[in-house]
Amino acid sequence: MSWRLETMKAISDPNIAYVLMTIGTIGLIAELYSPGAILPGVVGAISLILAFYSLQSLPVNYAGVLLFILGIVMLILEVTVTSYGVLAIGGVTAMVLGSLFLFNQDFPYYQLSWSVMLPVIALAVGFTLLVVNFGVRALRRQTPTGSEGMIGRIGSAKTNLAPNGQIVVQGEIWDAVSSAPVTEGQSIQITQIEGLTVHVKPLEPQNEGE
Q1: Nearest one of 160, 167, 158, 159 to 199, comparing CA atoms
Q2: Which helix (H) or strand (E) holds 200?
Q3: Contact at 8 Å (CB) between 23 and 44?
Q4: Phi and psi of 60, rounded to 5°?
Q5: What pLDDT, on a 0 to 100 scale, did the predictor assign at position 140?
Q6: Given CA atoms 111, 56, 122, 7 in this order, what sign does their dihedral have?
Q7: Which is it for the CA torsion 24, 25, 30, 32, positive or negative?
Q8: Tell me, what's the pLDDT at 208?
Q9: What is the CATH code for 146-202?
Q10: Bridge partners (DSSP) listed for residue 173
């Protein structure tokens, strides 16, 4: 038997297909929450393709596949939504049920081995919670961008603000509204952004007599 047939025979084993599907799902989740890592995404994509190829030759129950995916989604939500463990329990339950129903019960030969299923589920749950939790924390630590990132920045008045005018912040010109009169060239600080208009406050008092 050629190596190609040996490989096809190996990945057509329901336990191998199950492991490949799990690795693929976890790999893509890891890539999603750590963009640029590349390796998890590559391994995940290859594993999923091999898993789908394998599942084509097996008596798959797609309700089981959906339950398994639902379990993964619940675990992801557990990290981002306060559910007091309800989503985690639901996720594990859905993954176990999905694994049990993954293949049609009319074919006993194609049922998953408990010695494979339980360790895979345990590793999948632990790794998913770890990766998603790490990814969410990393995103929260990132410097705010866009409107939030502009608040607090210091610039200068391009025109007099009484209270409307224009300011320059990091080389960009903005329409601005000041909480107090500002003269051209005076330093200002952004306090709020509404659409394309920024609210500012002066950082230096106006010179008397001007």
Answers
A1: 167
A2: strand 197-202
A3: yes
A4: -80, 140
A5: 60
A6: positive
A7: positive
A8: 42
A9: 2.40.50.140
A10: 168
Report helix, strand or coil for 65. helix
pLDDT for 207 equals: 47
H or E, element range at 154: strand 154-157
Q: What is the mean pLDDT of each run of 10 residues along the chain (210 residues)?
A: 74 89 90 81 92 87 91 85 83 92 79 89 88 72 58 91 90 88 91 85 62
Task: Give the N- to C-terminal CA distance of the chain in Å, as an integer.
Answer: 95
Measured CA to CA, the distance from residue 129 to residue 122 in angstroms comes to: 11
Nearest alpha-carbon partner for 68 in 20, 9, 134: 20
Say if residues 126 and 155 touch (Cβ distance below 8 Å).
no
Q: Where in the chain is the domain with CATH 2.40.50.140?
A: 146-202
Which residues lie across from 182 on neighbouring strands?
Answer: 161
